UniProtKB/TrEMBL annotation, chain A:
<protein>
    <recommendedName>
        <fullName>Rubredoxin</fullName>
    </recommendedName>
</protein>
<keyword id="KW-0813">Transport</keyword>
<comment type="similarity">
    <text>Belongs to the rubredoxin family.</text>
</comment>
<dbReference type="InterPro" id="IPR024922">
    <property type="entry name" value="Rubredoxin"/>
</dbReference>
<dbReference type="InterPro" id="IPR024934">
    <property type="entry name" value="Rubredoxin-like_dom"/>
</dbReference>
<dbReference type="Pfam" id="PF00301">
    <property type="entry name" value="Rubredoxin"/>
</dbReference>
<dbReference type="InterPro" id="IPR050526">
    <property type="entry name" value="Rubredoxin_ET"/>
</dbReference>
<dbReference type="InterPro" id="IPR024935">
    <property type="entry name" value="Rubredoxin_dom"/>
</dbReference>
<keyword id="KW-0249">Electron transport</keyword>
TrEMBL record, chain B:
<dbReference type="Pfam" id="PF07992">
    <property type="entry name" value="Pyr_redox_2"/>
</dbReference>
<keyword id="KW-0274">FAD</keyword>
<dbReference type="InterPro" id="IPR041364">
    <property type="entry name" value="Rbx-bd"/>
</dbReference>
<feature type="domain" description="Rubredoxin binding">
    <location>
        <begin position="306"/>
        <end position="375"/>
    </location>
</feature>
<keyword id="KW-0285">Flavoprotein</keyword>
<keyword id="KW-0520">NAD</keyword>
<dbReference type="InterPro" id="IPR023753">
    <property type="entry name" value="FAD/NAD-binding_dom"/>
</dbReference>
<dbReference type="Pfam" id="PF18113">
    <property type="entry name" value="Rbx_binding"/>
</dbReference>
<keyword id="KW-0963">Cytoplasm</keyword>
Length: 55, 381
């Protein structure tokens, strides 16, 4: 399981936790998140920016 | 000569460069930046303290990494002093750079309110990575901070500072925080949450003077009260950097004036980001920049593409009071409908015929963000 950080706003996506409130269950891998997903904090699209693998 | 020359390597300059490179693999591309040209997350400047981020750890890419990634020449420390739109060159202290198309992504300058006193020039502002480094250094060994301005960025800094263990007092002339974005009931909810988190708010007050004391600073309010703190930080507002464009005869108003194609009054010169005024709108936030960069890149690559702005809610990074706002367009007719709930408040700005034009969601009501965003009209259709 990895964590990824939005380079625009610093939001962290943790694969182990997922985002249950957005329907992304715990354990969902970054590659399996739909391309039209956007950062819940700054709204930047998945396809638009790199997520930094921080752990 | 560069086919495309970009002034500025912030989010606007970097993103348009990256999008352009995808479309034009062989075009020559140069970025000039007055600063170190390191790419960093500017929004994290106002929540980096509690997360213990240093200026170094906020820098995500160096100028060299950016140059390799973009296959571009990236020139840090290259402040442009003049644009010559007739010869199509820009001038820096170290020489001239000719361009085919020029992109202004110059950002905005923070301003401090007019005040009296012997310490006005020591009031800190944090608008870029080197400011943040100075701010971190100035905080070492200090306990208390006075913040001038209770808007979005001021409240974020206040929340970050209080979480990091500082005593924080916010001074704002309006009656509630985020007064430009929140109706009164929502602003009062936020005020209570910030106070519960330990932040002192001096609302309806204005700083008249800042003076040095033996140990720190004192701020004299227009009403006469005197407050003391170790440091004074200002987060009053930003002004688009328009001087360079104005001196070159390019049309400016609040920002550098551009049309839907992000084109200035000079057809070879474009602008986006915090320095730009797009169809009368100055929107100094991340999402307008991403949308503008996505439109400008194909335009620069030869396919003129107008910018469209969907509804673009802004998340306010105040963990003491989670907040998301999407203010109605300036001058919209309608009124706020307030729905308090347990642990939150939802405010919807409704037109006379019942359409949702804007919202402010606080606390538990932030859960409605996605549903309400879908119902909002686009900012620029
Ligand atoms: C503390 C803070 C928190 C924020 N939080 C959020 C948030 O949570 N969500 C959100 O949506 N927005 C947020 N914003 C706004 C967002 O960060 C900005 O809109 C965005 O980063 C601006 O990018 P820019 O590229 O237009 O400007 P900048 O990043 O300021 O870049 C300007 C560039 O121009 C260069 N430059 C300037 N003058 C010259 C010159 N004469 N010659 C050469 N180069 C020059 C500079 O060196 C720099 O590289 C925040 C802003 C601040 C200050």
């Amino acid at each position: 399981m990895h964590k990824y950080q939005c380079i625009v706003c610093g939001f962290i996506y943790d694969e182990a936790v997922g985002m249950p409130e957005e329907g992304i269950v715990a354990g969902t891998r970054w590659e399996d998140i739909p391309a039209d997903w956007s950062c819940p904090d700054c709204g930047v699209a998945k396809a638009d920016f790199d997520m930094l693998q921080i752990a | 000569m560069s086919d495309v020359l970009i002034l500025g390597s912030g989010l606007a300059g970097y993103t348009v460069a990256r999008e352009f490179r995808k479309l034009a693999p062989d075009a020559s591309l140069t970025l000039l930046s007055a600063d170190s040209a390191a790419f960093y997350s500017k929004p994290m400047l106002s929540n980096g303290l509690a997360a213990n981020k240093t200026a170094e750890s906020l820098a995500m890419k160096s100028a060299e990494q950016m140059a390799t990634e973009l296959k571009a020449a990236v020139r840090p420390g290259s402040r442009v002093e003049q644009i010559d739109p007739v010869r199509k060159v820009v001038k820096t202290a170290s020489g001239e750079y000719p361009y085919g198309k020029l992109v202004l992504a110059l950002g905005a300058d923070p301003f401090t309110p007019p005040m009296q006193g012997d310490a006005v020039t020591e009031v800190l502002t944090v608008n870029d990575l080197s400011d943040y480094g100075r701010f971190r250094a100035a905080l070492l060994g200090k306990r208390s901070v006075i913040l001038l301005g209770g808007g979005l960025i001021g409240c974020e800094f206040a929340n970050d500072l209080v979480t990091a263990g500082f005593e924080v007092t916010v001074i704002d002339p309006m009656q509630w925080p985020l007064s430009r974005l929140l109706p009164q009931a929502a602003g009062e909810f936020m005020m209570r949450q910030l106070e519960t988190a330990g932040i002192t708010l001096r609302l309806g007050e204005q700083a008249a003077a800042v003076n040095r004391t033996a140990v720190g600073y004192q701020v004299t309010l227009a009403g006469g009260d005197v407050l003391e703190a170790d440091l004074v930080l200002s987060a009053i507002g930003l002004r688009p950097r328009i001087a360079l464009a104005a001196a070159a005869g390019i049309k400016t108003a609040r920002g550098i004036v551009v049309d839907r194609h992000l084109q200035t009054s000079d057809p070879a010169i474009f602008a986006l980001g915090d320095c730009a005024e797009v169809e009368g709108l100055v929107l100094p936030f991340v999402l307008p920049i991403m949308n503008a960069a996505r439109a400008l890149a194909p335009t620069l690559a030869g396919t003129p593409t107008p910018v469209r702005y969907p509804a673009m809610p802004v998340v306010v990074k105040t963990p003491a009071c989670p907040t998301v706002v999407s203010p109605p367009a300036i001058g919209s007719a309608g009124e706020w409908r307030i729905e308090p709930e347990d642990g939150g408040i939802a405010a919807s700005f409704m037109s006379e015929d019942g359409a949702l034009l804007g919202f402010a969601l606080l606390g538990t009501a932030t859960a409605r963000k996605q549903a309400l965003t879908g119902a909002l009209p686009p900012v620029l259709a």
